Amino acid sequence: MEQVFFVISKLAWAVLSPFMMLNLLLVFGTLFLLFGYRTIALRFLLPALVFSLSLMIFPIGDWLIHPLEARISQPQQLPENIDGIIVLGGGEDIKTTISWQQPQVGQASDRYFGAALLAKQYPDSPIIFTGGSNLLRFDAGATPAELSHQLLTMVGIDEKRLIIESQSRNTYENFQRLKTVIPKRNGQYLLVTSAYHMPRSVGIAERQGINVVPYPVDYRSQTGESRQLDFAVFEQLEKLEPAWREWVGLTAYFITRKTSQWFPEGPSGRFVETTTDAQADIR
């Protein structure tokens, strides 16, 4: 069943991606125009024009991704004791790594830096990484496990502390497989992932009965005066893609009962809120 869900989600995103939708509108519009069907062509080209102009004029990417990032904040006070630090994969670039035989990261590489920061705060806690290849027609072999191991040690984490799960292909499988590798089933874990991805991750964790304290990183939205008319179409599209994917993912996961809520707000806070000087330094 999970294989079917994975395949359908990948195929659906191939059509629902804003960049792909824009390309399809342009391609079909141009084809109809070339074959003389001007009226039909305009039905494709006009929406493409409106979409492109909107990206130039309005911060649509910011508007969509900011609510996701603002939903769950970093804790003002970190728990005194935890049983591990969970890091969700997604910050690595598997295909480029294989192509050049050198560890490569993508936009979400802040997940590794967040893990390194917390690893110093909790020197006795294991670092639990979960994430494999989510590519539909590309066999990455052992690369995901090797790459995550390399990247985590490169940011200064002792390899003896690492617990790596590299078979999961999406966020739901992350937490499904985590249940088999976490040290304590009922323990308390800090969760590191991109801020826009945190609501869905927390919802799945709660559904799977894994107690997490969110520690979002990799913020991408701009607010207030930072939002201005600069015709940065590509920049807005870079934010729009993950934001739209996340809203679609939240909806699909809620319908299929993989999350506890449609738009999770985060755990109610089941840890002791005590702050030491060292904990204050991490803030």
How would you explain this protein's 3D organization?
By secondary structure, the protein is an alpha/beta fold. It has two domains: 2-57, no CATH class; 75-218 and 264-282, HUPs (Rossmann fold), CATH 3.40.50.620. Helices cover 50% and strands 10% of the residues. It is built from eleven helices and five strands, in the order ααααβααβαβαβαβαα. It has helices at residues 2-16, 18-34, 38-57, 60-71, 94-100, 110-121, 143-154, 171-178, 198-207, 233-255, 277-282, and strands spanning 84-88, 127-130, 162-165, 188-194, 211-217. It has a five-stranded parallel β-sheet, with helices on both faces. The N and C termini lie far apart (42 Å). Mean pLDDT is 85; it is low at 269-283.
- Tell me the number of helical segments per DSSP (H or I, 4 or more residues long): 11
How big a fraction of the residues is strand? 5-15%
- What is the gyration radius calculated from CA atoms? 21 Å
The topology string of helices and strands comes to: HHHHEHHEHEHEHEHH
Task: Describe the sheet with the most strands.
Answer: 5 strands, parallel
Q: Could you state the oligomeric state of the chains shown?
A: single chain
Query: Distance between termini?
Result: 42 Å
How many β-strand stretches? 5
Mean pLDDT: 85
Shape: elongated
Count of the domains: 2
Pfam families: DUF218
Keywords: Membrane, Transmembrane, Transmembrane helix
InterPro entries: Cell_Envelope_Assoc, DUF218, Rossmann-like_a/b/a_fold
Protein name: DUF218 domain-containing protein
